[in-house]
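Predict the assembly for these two chains.
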Amino acid sequence: MPIEITMPRLSDTMEVGTILHWHVQVGDEVSSGDLLADIETDKATMELQSFDDGLVESLTVAVGEQVDVGTLIATLLEEGAAASTESSPAPEEKHEANTQPAQKPIAGGARVSPVARRLAEEHRIDLSTVQGSGPSGRIIKRDILQLVATTSETTSAAQTTQISATEVVATSAPVSPAQPVKQVQALAPTSPWQQDRTEPLSNMRQIIAKRLVESKQTIPHYQVTMDFDMDPLIEMRKTLNEQLASASVKLSVNDFLVRCCALAMSTNPAFNASFGGDCILYHGPVNVGIAIALPEERGGGLVVATIRNADQKSLRTISQESAYLSNKARETGLAPDEMGDTTFTISNLGMFGVDNFTAIINPPNSAILAVGAAIEKPVVRGGELAVGREMSATLSLDHRVIDGAMAAMYLKTLKELIENPASLLV
Amino acid sequence: MMAVATAERVIEFRDALNEAMSEEMRKDNRVYLLGEEVAEYNGAYKVSKGMLDEFGARRVIDTPISESGFAGMAIGSAMRGLRPIVEFMSWSFSLVAADPILNNAPKMLYMSGGQFGCPIVFRGNDGAGGQLASTHSWCVESMYANVPGLKMAIPYDAYDAKGLLKTAIQDDNPVFFLESERLLSTTGHVPVEEYTIPFGQALTRRSGTDCTIISFGRPLHFCLEAADELAKEGIECEVIDGRTIRPLDIDSMVASVKKTNACVVVDQSWSFASVGSEIASQIHACCFDDLDNHVFRVHSDDVPTPYAHNLEQAYLPNSRKICEAVRQATYNA
């Protein structure tokens, strides 16, 4: 009885995974803990280790192929059962039988003759839309040229009023099949720097697109904004950072906000909850997510790092964890347990000079706080006009869980914490 | 009328070879011919007809049946300043002389640090002559072209036979000149005026847009036959005559493949480690992004040359095989 290995769920948002590399081949002996494959999830590249000892009987998913969580990706023969391989079909045959999806054109993985690939680039044709007529579905020169011919035929037919019937028949009847699945872009001659281009979505971009559309379409969003007097907090931060510099403590404004939001969540439990369809799920742990933009050279996009039990952690711990996670996210990427299970998210664009903005809720959270910069501006303090530093923050809320008054109450709690920061220390 | 007749002078391939040698011998008295039956018998294939009469026994020398001996002697004379032409009755027999012609002549200039060159031409019939069986039907080009230091030319018709042989005789390096018994009686236009054909310049024998066929010597006739056949099916082939294997005019071949995006190499030697595989490899490297399919190759079958007429015809890189390869290369199979 072979051991079935399926695509594991490596993060709480993972629905599909891509095999980037198989570290084993059919026939290899593996022990528990051995590296089997590298798997690209929605947000990270993970190593898949074997939980069992055995002989690799089949690899059923090809490198580059994306499959749903739970899909069979490999089978192992248990130790001692190896003898039964002789009576069962050869692993190679099984492997072949299971890799037939390679026959169908996959974007990026399709079989394309080199000149067809070059012509497609020149004519800006998306190869994933082309059906190949060569062996094993290989896309060949003829397929691209026919596509170009039919496209320019369509264009010129639209422009030309007089065109003989024989001409149309002669040029629009392809000799062999090459149907575009989608409309090919018009081939208007433009300078290279004016030309449109398409880039396939990265896994991360796909998940961002899917989840945020889902969020915006299913969650009844509304926003509540409040301004905060940041002078006391900034003063305290300055003092703490000066006095603790020798201990390598460097607290950011965001670290304070994480602690403030977490404390406010524990006294406003609806902010630590999820909409459950026919119920509201109140979470035990208070896990605050921090949105981190990834650098362009790592493909851009963003991840949300998790500060677990943030209400129980000191500013120093939050600061250390936050710095560690930001660096790791930008440099090598986060592990699933470093970015799942958030119950609330903070998105801070203050460091970019943004005054205020609104954010889209990160499901299954019920709220997200969009934080602007602390800006010097004229303020009235005790009847006097003065210069003070104020920060604007906007909550986006799921109205199914949190009503307006509850949002106001949360912001009030937040305001008390931010403007009286001593309570964050003790 | 006379002028037209002169311009259209048509002679046999063997006479073109004769003219090339005779003209060069008249110009340069260091040039001489030696080989089996080249003098008294006027050449086993009548290539040297009349040359003994014109140049005398000192410059047109009959040798014993001892390829290693007379090839080695000729190489020695070349090192000492003469410019011999060695006729092998068949290139098959040159295998006996492998050490002098492959292991010495091409390396002489290098090994002597430039002191001794080896201006020599080895010439004779290459390939299946027609029911000569496996030991007399050698195509030596793949095996011999492997050696650096030599040049190798394979003429397709009478015009090239004369022009390339004159270049070979004038060249200061050992030149392997591969003729075909099957072509000696073919006729072609050869002008009276003196001309030579430089080495390393391929010639387009037929222009086309759909597939490049590259070949040398006798198989080019099969290629052109196949191109006619394929044209009836709407496949237009461009047939490139490489003319010389060393130096190889890969640039012309690449230019053609960049245009057609498909390539078939036709080489009468066996396929394994051959001139055909070398050209295919270079085309793959130079035209990677221009190919619509991998380069296809047509060779003689991977068996000793059969004696039986029907089997020999089936064994050769014939037009049927070339048509099949072109159809496959262009996805018309």
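Chain A is about 30% helix and 25% strand. The CA atoms of residues 255 and 403 of chain A lie 27 Å apart.
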